[in-house]
Amino acid sequence: xxxxxxxxxxxxxxxxxxxxxxxxxxxxxxxxxxxxxxxxxxxxxxxxxxxxxxxxxxxxxxxxxxxxxxxxxxxxxxxxxxxxxxxxxxxxxxxxxxxxxxxxxxxxxx
Length: 110
What we know:
Layout: H1 5-22, H2 29-43, H3 50-63, H4 84-91, H5 94-108
Helix pairs in contact: 1-3, 1-5, 2-3, 3-5
């Protein structure tokens, strides 16, 4: 994985926060991911990989939330912007980000 460890840890914490906030009280993170992936498939029937769509929805929800990690919103794709997505995009392509997302979802769905 090409993502810097500190960025991976931050992204993992942000995704976990999104999952914990959105899952039902009696639902495990694995059940939430499965349910959300199914929702993505129903909402967008032309999606080829519902789990990839789910991962990216979680990512976008994670980077758009205000956070206590540094007091700023993590939006902005351009590397000149201060956003976390911009920081990641400066040295990673979408495949690298997806690899990290796949690992994060696998970890939290255990």
